[in-house]
Amino acid sequence: MLEKPSLPFFDQQFSLLTGHEPYRWQRGLFQEFIAGRVTASLSLPTGAGKTNVITCWLLGLVWQKLQATVTLARRLVWVVNRRKVVDQTSDLAERIADTIEKLPADHDLRRALDSMSLTGGIGVSTLRGEHEDNQEWSDDPSAPAIIVGTVDMVGSRLLLSGYGLSPRQRAQDGALLANDVLLVNDEAQISPAFARLIRLIEDARSKAEVPLLKPFVTMHVSATLDESSLARGVFPFDPAEETSEHFWKVYTAKKTLRFREVEKKAVLDTIFAEAMKPSELLRRIVFVRQPKDVKFIARAIAKKKKSKVLTVTGTMRGFEREQLVNEPMFRQFLSDAPTLTEPAWLVCTSAAEVGIDISSDLLVMDMDTAEHLTQRLGRVNRFGDLAAAVAVLVHEKNTAVSKLSDAERNTLDYLHSLPQQDGGADVSCKTIFENPAPAEAQGKRPAVATFTERDLALLSYTSVRHSATKPDVDSLLHGAEKNPPYIEIAWREELPQLLAMSDEEREEWLSSYRVLAHERLRELNDEVSQILGQSHGTALLVESDGTIREIRIPDELTSVDRESLLILPPGIGGLSSGMLAEGENGNDVSGIADRFRFIAEGNTIRGEGREFSDEEFKAFLRQNKLVVKLRVGSEELNLIHVVKKQKKARNTSTDWLDEHLAEVEQGVRDLCAKLDIPADLTEELALAARMHDVGKKHPNWQKAFNSGKMSARAIAKLVGRTIRQSILAGLRHEFVSLFEMDGNVLAKQVVSAHHAWGRPHFPQRGYDPARPRRENAAMNLENMRRFAKLQKKYGVYGLAYLEAILRAADVTASGGE
User: Quick one: residue 164, left, alpha or beta (phi over 0 = left, psi -120 to 50 = alpha)?
Assistant: First the structure.
């Protein structure tokens, strides 16, 4: 039988990748995976090693490849509902990838993974927090990959509306996250709307007329899954069957919850007093709901103790969150062998509830519902390194006129019902797992927004920037009852130059020189309006649909939509512990080590904190790669983006059109071979590759490439020079390409959509000025009808997946640009 040889393989490789032996449940999950079964839900207690679902999946994929029977998805997407500081999931994935990369080429793991893709190995990408999407998972769709992201970042992409993405990337990201994917929804009970949405997407995919090429399956994981997550089956887990000493050390680690009932106005003062009490419990974590309460408690402790107090909120800028990990004090909370001699404090919101391996000796918290409090209690004596630890719940008096919700009252009743010890409730992992909170102690389930096939079709129209008929993405991800609206904020020195650009030039610059995650903070819209209320100036707003527009500060702040990005000039607003503040220096975007920004004005080139002469800058470019150079207004002013040169397995310097088309066609064929795409579809995609850029032969395109002159040989792209957008005036080369193609329906659609247009139409400014308007309009109408027909045939995600194959090959041939 298959299981007998597979288990020694699993045990050996699991130990190699993780440094310890697998638990019994992990062996069972691996066997399910290699048999081609993915259980819909996995209920595990805190400390049971749930993140090693990743290891079980990867080894299952490798085993199937070695047996030449691959049915598992080649990408695992791990979704969390929090912006976090330390993400154990990303850390585990990166350690696994590093270990595999160092193995000999003939090792089973290397051999299997390398044979699956064009680039080899396994990619690891993070779509949230302080990390930045490295696009390893999207550049090569054939590569096995682990992607970690939040509900917002993954969910908006699944809905082809990726927050912060340019329209040209949205359909591709959505396709690659909904095909060849096992999606693990971590702590699914905290995000019920998203949990339902991904199951609806699973169902929607099955309605395509043509069978889908690749799987998309979901797994809900938590210690406290709700009934909706359990409805489709649960992987069996019995703690009594586990024999690991480490498991039982964590599972039975002693912790006691004590209660402090006070008047509402005394809650924060009591939390402060409890956190300050003298004791031998040195690692102290405080949990409160609101970032403003974090600031209040942290300042009070710092003033009292004259020492630094660390804070964690979901609103902090990524850079400060990343730096926090390097703080020696913070690392004490990550350690199972702390060396503290004096108390240390960490004050947090719910951002530290999930997916962060911190442990406290003393935890003090305000009131919340059961699903949140049990997560917080998982941060007490987390490693089982203490003989005992204490948690204190400070809550408003539970009276007839109390403002506690019904769920909060039921949560108190539940906690008081747990076995008693040392003057409080026993809240060990074992006790919580064996005595789960009742449904009435859970927070109010959001009214889930309706989601139909029509909604999905409307969201697939990525060329439609504004439409009142499109469903609200935030409601689909978080529920019809709105969360408070948040926006993201970053500062950019080149904002004056961006304000002088056209819309197309701004989009090109921000697509090239992206606002990275560690440059951004996230804050409530109302707080932003209040803090920036006395500031004056002009900013850029990148709306959630990708539209870029100017706004006046503070007059137009109230018109900012949720999940937009506000780009401020230095001098407006600032930072305090990584959070938005008034009047401080907001210009720090340090830590960007692999890209450079320059402003060239006349013979002066400024960047990297200095001025360059022409010769010095030429020498700099010989060591690095110029990505884009945009002219601003006049001939004398340019924005320049440079990145460090990286070794590429493929040629990345193609300039000429004939060479580029041939390279993209070969790239498509190579990808299709690795992805086992049927022969007929491979030929359609290869044709699309041969034709996708032939529209660049248009005289206007060649003049734009050559600063108004014509070349004897058609150019595909420029390296180190600017495209004259004024000559193009919005002309779309992919629209022109359609006139050169015959009746191949799928190939035409793939060509029309490879820069996000053609889904379902092109703007009139994209028309070919050399052709009659009626002819252009007829081609546009044909495109819309073709798109609707093909989307019905292949499904929203099936069609987008076929388009993504061409786009990936095109990006690779263009050097990743």
Answer: left
